[in-house]
Amino acid sequence: MQPSSRIAIVGAGLAGACAAFALHRHAHVEVFEATEAADQAFRAAGGLFHPLMTRRARPNWQHDAALEALERLLAAVGDRVPVRRGLLRVAFSEKQAQDFREAARTYPHFVQWLAPEEAKERFPQVQAPYGALWIPQGGAVSAARLIEVLLEQSGVPIHRPVRVVDWKEEPDGVRLHTDRGAVHRFDYAILAPGYGYQAHPELARLPFQAVKGQVICLQRPPSLDTLPLVLANVHLAPYGDQVFVGSTYEPAFTDLAPSEAQTRWLLDEAARWVPEVSRSTVVAALTGVRVIRPHRPLPVLSPLPGRRRLWLFSALGSRGLLYAPLLASWLPEVLERPERLPEAVRLD
Ligand SMILES: Cc1cc2nc3c(=O)[nH]c(=O)nc-3n(C[C@H](O)[C@H](O)[C@H](O)COP(=O)(O)OP(=O)(O)OC[C@H]3O[C@@H](n4cnc5c(N)ncnc54)[C@H](O)[C@@H]3O)c2cc1C
User: Fold this and answer.
1) Residue with the nearest Cα to atom 16 of ligand 1?
2) Which range marks the domain in which residue 234 is found?
3) Looking at ligand 1, which atom is closest to the CA of residue 235?
4) Which of 32, 61, 295, 322 is the most exposed place for a label (fewest CB within 10 A)?
């Protein structure tokens, strides 16, 4: 890629920030973000990552490469983005415990099986009646902070709040039209609009689905000072003097407001695994929207169908931290050679 290549990134969420960070040394990059403040899905994200994010604790697609890419990114941002290491994945049924035990036998380098009494001894605040997996490679970061630091370290110009409302691909470049009435010309545009995909007819017809999620933030009682990161049917992520509990999974939604009923459900479920949370005060409820490919649960990094210069980086589902750094790291090589992309992430 020529250092003089001009690349636009539309959306300053996790995908856009990782893309900007991966490309800023290779080309001239500019970011367009529709909102003033952080308004992306990660507002509500737990920020959890680990290599066995399936229900049955099977390794995710490209998990080794994905964790390596994430670790490279975390090393690059250093202690400006604190990382919490180690994750306790609590089995929520005997059936799941069987799967977890098998995972521990098959992938002993990733996970350790803790029988109920061992789990109780190591993590007395947590109830794990069916046992749990200890995943040392798992962890959590404040994803909003990661996005902020990546954009800052990239040093790329950010047009904000500026919404891209239309685009045209021409033989020698792409024209982006903004809600300010301006037209900007680039060699490539990477669309990373998250849930904003629904506003653009060319994206709205893609086979994607939006799934709302709610997270609540609790004041952490002193008795939970040593609470680990916990993942069962909900997650509990301690940050400072707060604990974030999430997430709901709501494919049918009519608005983005947090709901009292979902707050109640999250509290009740969290209390099943960590009874002390029932004494905590809810200080906030947040929502976000994940974009998924229902029939193919993998992210997308691809030229749009029939396009060469207009790309889409999306469908990260609930695995943004696992996949955004990996896919972004391919960009410098694949933008001019899309045939090198794994078929699994392409749209055609
Ligand atoms: C409740 C919840 C919990 C989650 N928990 C986790 C977790 O624990 N771990 C994990 O890895 N992932 C988690 N996720 C998933 C993660 O949040 C997403 O995968 C990730 O945020 C997707 O990033 P994105 O950049 O594609 O989209 P977004 O984060 O939505 O960012 C898109 C950005 O594009 C901007 N935009 C949209 N349209 C335009 C336009 N036309 N012009 C300019 N800008 C535009 C938007 O304003 C937004 O800032 C969770 C998601 C939710 C909702």
Assistant:
1) 320
2) 209-292
3) 8
4) 295
